[in-house]
C-alpha cells in the first residue's frame, strides 16, 4: 500500500505531503524511525529481522523501523512500526521505554530522509507479522557489522548505516 508521508525541508520542517512512492522516485526528503531492540542492559545484542518477500528490500536483514505516516511525530511512528513488525499489531507492553539516541539525515535504500534512532530493552517474546517480517533473531552488533562488511548485499543499506553510526557513538 502506498502511504502518504510528510515532505520536510533541510531543517526537518513539514512543507508538504506526498505518496511515499513519489518521495522515493523524486528523492524528496521525508521522515523515518528505527528501533534497536536489546534483550538486556549490556546493549550488545539487538534484534535483526528478515524482511518479508512481500515488501521492499525483500528478504534483506534489517533492524525494526520504517516511514512515518503523514502527521506522525518520530516517537509515534517508531512505536507504530515496532507494533506492526514485532508485535503483530498488538499494543506494546507497558514496560517498553523508548530512548532517543540520534537523528541522522540519510540517502540509502531509495530513501532521502531524516531518521531518528531509538533504543529499547525488552525481555519478553515477539509475535512478528509475517507480511512484514519473515523471521527475527538476536545478534551481537559487532558480529552483525562483520557480516555486513563481508556480505553487504544481505542487509538493507539503512541498517548498515545506522549500526555503523551506533557503533561510532556508543561502542
Helix-strand blueprint:
Elements: E1 4-8, E2 14-19, H1 20-26, E3 30-38, E4 45-51, E5 61-62, E6 65-67, H2 74-86, E7 99-108, E8 111-121, E9 133-140, H3 141-150, H4 157-170
What does this structure look like?
- The chain is built from four helices and nine strands, in the order ββαββββαβββαα.
- It is α+β, with helices and mostly antiparallel strands and 171 residues long.
- The protein has a four-stranded mixed β-sheet, with helices on both faces.
- Helix 3 crosses helix 4.
- It has a single domain (4-170), classed as Nucleoside Triphosphate Pyrophosphohydrolase (Alpha-Beta Complex).
- The mean pLDDT is 95.
- Helices cover 26% and strands 36% of the residues.
Total number of beta strands: 9
CATH fold-level label: Nucleoside Triphosphate Pyrophosphohydrolase
> Rounded to an integer, what's the Rg over CA atoms?
15 Å
Major β-sheet profile = 4 strands, mixed
In short:
By secondary structure, this protein is of the alpha+beta class. It is built from four helices and nine strands.
Provide the descriptors you would attach to this structure in a database record.
single chain, 171 residues, alpha+beta, Nucleoside Triphosphate Pyrophosphohydrolase, four-stranded mixed β-sheet, three-stranded antiparallel β-sheet, 9 strands, 26% helix, 36% strand
Amino acid at each position: 500500500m502506498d502511504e502518504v508521508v510528510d515532505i520536510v525541508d533541510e531543517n526537518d520542517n513539514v512543507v508538504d505531503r506526498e505518496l511515499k512512492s513519489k518521495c522515493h522516485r523524486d528523492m524528496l526528503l521525508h521522515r523515518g524511525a528505527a528501533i534497536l531492540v536489546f534483550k538486556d542492559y549490556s546493549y550488545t545484542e539487538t534484534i535483526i529481522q528478515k524482511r518479508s518477500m512481500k515488501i521492499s528490500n525483500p528478504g534483506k536483514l534489517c533492524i525494526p523501523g520504517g516511514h512515518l505516516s503523514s502527521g506522525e511525530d518520530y516517537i509515534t511512528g517508531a512505536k507504530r512500526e515496532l507494533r506492526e513488525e514485532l508485535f503483530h499489531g498488538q499494543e506494546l507492553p507497558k514496560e517498553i521505554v523508548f530512548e532517543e539516541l540520534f537523528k541522522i539525515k540519510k540517502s540509502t535504500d531509495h530513501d532521502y530522509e531524516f531518521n531518528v534512532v531509538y533504543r529499547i530493552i525488552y525481555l519478553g517474546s515477539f509475535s512478528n507479522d509475517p507480511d512484514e517480517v519473515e523471521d527475527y533473531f538476536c545478534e551481537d552488533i559487532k558480529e552483525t557489522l562483520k557480516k555486513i562488511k563481508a556480505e553487504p548485499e544481505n542487509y538493507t543499506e539503512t541498517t548498515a548505516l545506522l549500526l555503523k553510526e551506533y557503533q561510532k557513538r556508543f561502542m
